[in-house]
Design goal:
This protein is α/β, with parallel strands linked by helices and 193 residues long. It contains five helices and ten strands. The chain has one domain: Lysozyme-like, CATH 3.40.80. 21% of the residues lie in helices and 18% in strands. The protein starts with 12 loop residues before the first strand and ends with a helix.
């Protein structure tokens, strides 16, 4: 897997989200934020997260999600339970995934981050294939964006403490970083925490 010149992942479905805008010319991509999502909560394979990111949820079918009507959010990429990847926003654009957020003294993390959603919940284990695919995506991002390294891959909970908890306590950070260490140059892991 690699990031193409158009800032999209090679060989993955691209479903454009209107919920994005231009990054500041001065803002380099320096951070990757890992999220989790399932809609309705705890249901996997529904394709509703994709509908959320493209403003196309069928609220007649999913009445329990009515409170999401009018919500405008997106992620750059979604990794489903089966490993299927959909990209919604090119990496050079600002996806609306982080909300009110701070990282290393910088606010508005959307300005300088890439958001990756894993289909899951805060209290469910992730699938082996999701770790494999996430490793491949991160390896491609490390190769394309020089400012991103191990220490710049965080959970949503780290940038929105007290407000968000994803990807949750069952996300295996050690496993992810161990897999990454086998795939990326050593200088990218020097900032690992």
């Amino acid at each position: 897997m690699r990031v193409l010149e158009n800032h999209r992942l090679e060989g993955v479905q691209f479903l454009p989200s209107p919920n994005c805008d231009e990054r500041s010319a001065a803002a380099d991509v320096t951070l990757v934020v890992i999220h989790c999502i399932s809609l309705p909560r705890g249901e996997f394979g529904s394709k509703v997260p994709s509908a959320l990111f493209t403003n196309s949820i069928d609220f007649y079918r999913y009445e329990e999600l009515k409170d999401l009507d009018g919500l405008r959010v997106s992620a750059h990429v979604l990794v489903e339970r089966n490993g299927e990847v959909t990209q919604f926003v090119p990496f050079d654009k600002r996806a609306w995934h982080a909300g009110v957020s701070t990282w290393q003294g910088r606010t508005n993390c959307n300005d300088f981050s890439i958001g990756i959603e894993l289909e899951g919940t805060d209290d469910s284990e992730y699938e082996d294939i999701q770790y494999d695919v996430l490793t491949a995506i991160l390896t491609a991002l490390f190769a394309r964006y020089s400012a991103i390294s191990f220490g710049n891959v965080v959970g949503h909970a780290e940038i929105a403490a007290g407000r968000k908890t994803d990807p949750g306590p069952l996300f295996d950070w050690r496993r992810l970083f161990s897999k990454l260490a086998k795939n990326v140059p050593s200088h990218k892991s020097s900032n690992s925490s």
